[in-house]
Amino acid sequence: MTAARAQKPSHAPFTLMKLPYEASALAPVISDETVGFHHGKHHKTYVDTLNKLIAGTEFEGQSLEEIVKATAKAQDAKTKKIFNNAGQVWNHDFFWNSLDPKGGKPSAKMKELIESGFGGFEEFKKKLTETGVTQFGSGWAWLVFENGKLGLEKTPNAENMLSAKPGAKALLTIDVWEHAYYLDYQNKRPDFLGAVIDKLLNWRFAEANLG
Question: Domain range holding 43?
Answer without folding.
Answer: 32-97
